[in-house]
Design a protein that fits this description.
11 strands, globular, six-stranded mixed beta sheet
């Protein structure tokens, strides 16, 4: 089939670079335009990202693209947005109003009632909300916060099988989650910062929206604490879960292991096994597990009984791929298979 033309907004940032690298050779999508801030407009993409963080390989044809302003007018169907939240809101609405489907990584529209907050393995039916938006042929779809992407994926099979009553999570989030240049080195050198502004509220509210219905958030009680640590990529999450009834370790393990709702769906970015369970008490670790299944799978370890809640485990999610760029690409693939991009 002919590829669908796409554009990336905020292409020079950490997530934007990952979007470009994932889309550069995508079997369904073709990058035909890249956009960034006004100060970068007119420069080539290769010039603009040179020396910024550790850029993945970008084909020369894309490195030679001239960066555009973030305004509608390009002959594309999908716009992937990696814009900073400070500017993303009105720009994404402008593109949606002009008839484009915006797959956004920004937080601005995630909690709006008619905007799908998607994790395709968990709530693909929420994509139907696109039809109820005010933008005609355009619309906005978002992927969740980078930690929520892993949390919701791990909780989904447990909630479906046993009904979750409450969850407490503590996250240790990597430097790349703060963007580039991110957190000053002296703040994290031999140190941990025990607070990330706005992060705990995002985790608590977004997880409930994803695990709920199209129109109503889940009644699960969520509690989150978040810290920034000196790792490069990969958010580690320690979770304690209480269910509506007693659940054995064997049943919980089976529910997670058998959770493969996209099997046979043919989505190029979907991991074959979304949840990988490890019996090694020293796993998961960011260095060892963040790139499992091209960064799209979540690794779970230390699944065990908890005397206060019932069940406890640790999970690792690649915050740049599953939690950001890869999640946005997978969302677009889901929309395409559901006929929402025609």
């Amino acid at each position: 089939m002919s590829k669908l033309k796409v554009m990336v907004l905020g292409a020079t940032g950490v997530v934007g670079q990952r979007l470009v690298s994932l889309l550069a050779e995508h079997p369904w999508f073709e990058i035909t335009a890249l956009a960034a801030s006004a100060k970068s407009a007119g420069a080539t993409y290769g010039e603009s990202i040179a020396g910024k963080w550790h850029t993945p390989h970008i084909p020369s044809r894309i490195a030679d693209f001239r960066l555009r302003d973030c305004v509608p007018g390009e002959d594309v169907r999908i716009v992937f947005s990696a814009l900073d939240a400070d500017v993303a809101g009105p720009i994404e609405e402008e593109f949606a109003g002009a008839g484009y489907i915006v797959c956004s990584n920004a937080r601005n529209h995630r909690l709006r009632p008619l905007v799908p907050l998607l994790v395709p393995e968990v709530n693909p039916d929420h994509s139907a909300l696109l039809k109820d938006q005010k933008y005609g042929e355009g619309g906005i779809v978002t992927n969740p916060n980078c930690a929520v992407s892993g949390i919701a994926l791990a909780l989904a099979p447990l909630h479906r099988c046993f009904g979750i009553k409450r969850v407490a999570v503590t996250t240790m989030q990597s430097l790349s989650g703060a963007g580039y240049p991110g957190v000053p080195a002296l703040d994290l050198l031999a140190n941990i910062v025990p607070y990330i502004e706005g992060e705990e509220d995002k985790i608590e509210r977004e997880t409930k929206k994803i695990l709920g219905t199209q129109k109503k958030a889940s009644a699960i009680r969520m509690s989150a604490q978040c810290a920034r640590v000196g790792t490069a990529v990969g958010h580690l999450v320690m979770a304690a879960v209480e269910f509506q009834r007693p659940v054995s370790l064997e049943d919980a393990q089976a529910a997670m292991t058998e959770f493969r709702p996209l099997a046979g769906a043919g989505l190029p970015s979907a991991p074959a096994v979304p949840l990988h369970l490890s019996g090694n008490p020293f796993r998961p670790q960011p260095v060892l597990d963040a790139n499992r299944e091209n960064g799209m799978a979540v690794t779970i370890g230390r699944l065990r009984y908890d005397s206060a809640f019932g069940l406890r485990f640790t999970l690792l999610v690649n915050n740049l791929i599953r939690g950001a760029a890869g999640g946005a690409v997978l969302n677009a693939e889901l929309l395409m298979t559901r006929g929402l991009l025609t």
